[in-house]
Amino acid sequence: MSIFKKISTLDRKWWYLLLIIFVVVPLLNPIGLPLKVSAYTKEAYNTVDALKTGDVVLVNFDVASSGYDEVKGSISSMIPHLFTKPGVKIMFMTDQDQGYIYIQKVIAERGTLMAGKTTWPWYQLEGKQYLVDYVNLGYFPGADKAIAALANDFRGNVGNKDFYGNNIGQWLDDAGVKSAKDIDLVITIDCGGAVSYFVNYFYLQYGTPIICSMISVSAAGAITNYSAKQVVALVISTRGSAEYQYLSGYFGEALISMDAFSIVQVLLVILVIITNIAFYFSREPPKGGKP
Amino acid sequence: MSSIIKRQEFLLAIIVLCSVFIYVPYFVQVPAQVSAVESWLINTMPIISATAVWVGFYTLLRRQAVRASRRVRGWYYGLMMGIMSLVVVVLGFTVGTNHDAFTFLTNSFVIPGDATIYALLVFFLTSAAARTFKVRDIESSLLMIAAFVMFMYQAPLTEYYLPFFSQPGLWLQNNLAMAATRVFGFSAALGGIVLAIRLVLGKEMGMIGLIRRKEKE
Amino acid sequence: MAIFVAMILMVYYYMKQAKPPYIRRVAAIDAIEEGVGRATELGGTVIVSPGIAQNGMDYWTVAGVAVLAHVARLAARNDLKLLVPLGGSDQSYALTEIARDVVEGQYRLEGKPDSFTIDNMPFLSGRQFAWATAYVGMILREKPALDVMVGTQWATAVYMSEVASNAGCMQISGTDYLSNVACLATTSDYVMIGEEQVAAGAYLSKDPVQLSSIRTQDIIKALLVVLMVAGTIAISFGSKIITDLFAL
Questions:
Q1: Domains plus CATH for chain A?
Q2: pTM for the whole structure
């Protein structure tokens, strides 16, 4: 059997082995390959940086364990960056049942416990304290129906209690949040399709600007929203997360994984070229004619 | 009363009324009473979704109990699933979802399982890519070229050292891919509107369990 | 709203025509019968997924249930084993009950109520990846001749279709996610793109009212294309007449 025939019929497990090696080695021994920052991520960074005192930001954690690894870089950099903006009030919410775990995770990892407190939710991060500068509204089940309900009657659906049972009615009044149109920016960390719900119910009704950090499979649809100016900025998957980490200075795993990201992309190109060459040279010529 | 509720016309009337009360206020200014009905309907949707979860949970437990009692093949897996489901529900109600026990179950079982299977996708995508991107004819050649340009544009390494792929990659993304995505969105949205019209006209009754009694061959 | 009202009027107009409107063949939908025929010859199983209903009973899931009903009727007619693994999201609990009711109804319509077994429609899991793993396990054990994946299929679609393809199944798929359509096109024998899936129920019914709704949809699409071209030409010459029309 010729070498080309062997390559074209090679068992997939050898390609998988090659993939594992080219992912694991750069992760364990980062090389420091260069990274260009895309316009989408730069715009996300600038939008967060431009927030002023009195602005109210709604951060939606549409994060599931499956997609967490793609967006954890943007979570661990965008959230602390947001917390550095003085006078900005932040409300966390989630429409995924696991979302609250990641809200707590990012604040616990980057923040510290408030004085005299021993447990959730009393953490402070970049000077912002719970129930003073930020609250966790909790889990709203129902996907698009929940977002529609919030846009329709924000205070009625949020109620007066946060996720932990603390009274937040006064906090919401002080922040000036009477309805959904009082929200100045929505940031959605998207492992599902929450950006389309926010576009439909927040942007189209109230013109609320939206930043979306999403997994790669959602990128095609989100770029359409961005191009139509329904979304002001995007942070696309691990690469966008790495760029945001670089811009904000909160370095982490996403930046480290860019070496493996680059190498695997190049490996895929080489793989496709090799299989095409092997396919071409291993084809049987048609009977009675030129190949 | 039950005979009225089971009638197709009654169910169709509910569909039409709900459609009108949700659809019309979105486009035109309506009296406050109509807006109130719209708000009530929208706010009720998450409640119905949550109720469906409980109905599903109950039927799941009942099915697994029946399978375990009959010792059907694999009954112990169903029993295990039932027991774990009940443990999580009881924990959630008693100690709450912030308790260490609940968090331990989620962090140890659910999250690693989900993340692992998601990570496996890269292997399947790799084998699909190796199989698909083969130059057989003109269309597949064009696909190959486009894929090659996009790979080169997306990888940070090649984008930095081979910057001449950026412009074609951006053009492909912002023109061809954008056009295809928008066409897909348009056609899907129109399909959705037409499906809604068929529902309102009572032609998709199979969805709510009302099968047409006479089938034309 | 004007488009919606216009569409209703157009559907009504075509309903009143004597001849049902011509609808072109959709290869992926016609292939369902071919697949069922293949399964009958091989004496095999048919496995169908109506979607994970991630957004509840939205129009994609309704379309998936319509296709499921069609496949169920064919399976009942040909005495085939029909597997419908359900689940995939916390909203899929509602779909489970509806799908079971629909499939049972199709078996009753074919005069074979005893052939329906609820054990062939297990609810696997409310989590997407757990459901997909169990689905793949069923494919590898049962080795179905036909695998139909419609409705809302997210990231796991690639995984499931690749395994089904390697197991030798004839694969017909469709999804609401554009990225997944591209992936499924590489692994499936037939793919329903865009509104083909949503129109499948109407296409398969051959009902004049439903066919007229497909015709209406195509006319509106053609009209939108004309408006887009007109708008592009107008903007090129500095006129905003079309864009102002849509801004109203």
A1: 3-30+258-281 (no CATH), 39-251 (3.40.50)
A2: 0.81
Residues from chain C that touch B121, judged by Cβ atoms under 8 A, are: 155-156, 158-159
Q: Which residues of B touch C206 (CB under 8 A)?
A: 216
And the tokens for C96? 């489970």
User: Minimal Cα–Cα distance from C199 to chain B, Å?
Assistant: 7
Whether C235 and C154 map to the same domain: the answer is no
Residue window 11-50, chain A: list those with CB within 8 Å of chain B. 12, 15-16, 19, 33-36
Q: Which residue of A has its CA nearest to B42?
A: A149
Residues C213 and C149 in one domain: no
Smallest Cα distance from C79 to chain B, Å: 19
Cross-chain Cβ contact B118/A66 below 8 Å: yes
Contacts of A103 (CB under 8 A, 6+ apart): A61, A92, A94, A136
Nearest Cα residue to C106 out of A59, B209, B73, B178 = B209
Maximal C-alpha separation, chain C: 69
Task: Say how far apart CA A189 and CA A166 lie, in whole Å.
Answer: 25
Q: What are phi and psi of A268, to 5 degrees?
A: -60, -40
Domain count of the fold of chain C: 2
| pLDDT class of A289 with cuts at 50, 70, 90 | very low
Instruction: Provide the pairing of β-strand A112-113 with A123-125.
Output: antiparallel
The reply to whether C95 and C135 lie within a common domain is yes
Q: Do A66 and C129 touch (CB under 8 A)?
A: yes
Q: Report residue B108 as tokens.
A: 């140890």
In this structure, is residue C88 part of a structural domain? Answer: yes
Virtual torsion, Cα B10, B11, B14, B20, nearest 10 deg: -110
In which residue ranges of chain B is pLDDT below 50?
213-217
In tens, the pLDDT along A211-222 reads 999 998 888 888
How do residues C132-183 score in pLDDT, each as one tens digit?
Answer: 999 999 999 999 999 999 998 988 888 898 899 889 999 999 888 777 888 8
Q: C57–B207: do the CB atoms touch at under 8 Å?
A: yes
How much is the ipTM here? Answer: 0.76
Q: Provide the residue range defining the domain that includes C95.
A: 27-198
User: For an interface test with C, which of A69, A200, A217, A236 has the most C Cβ atoms less than 10 Å from its Cβ?
Assistant: A217
Partners of chain A (3+ Cβ pairs below 8 A): B, C
Residue C170's φ and ψ, nearest 5 degrees, are: -80, 130
**Same domain membership, residue C152 and residue C104:** yes
Verify that C163 and C56 share a domain, yes or no.
yes
For residue C163, give both structure tokens.
């395994």
Residues of chain C with pLDDT under 50: none
Same domain, C238 and C138: no
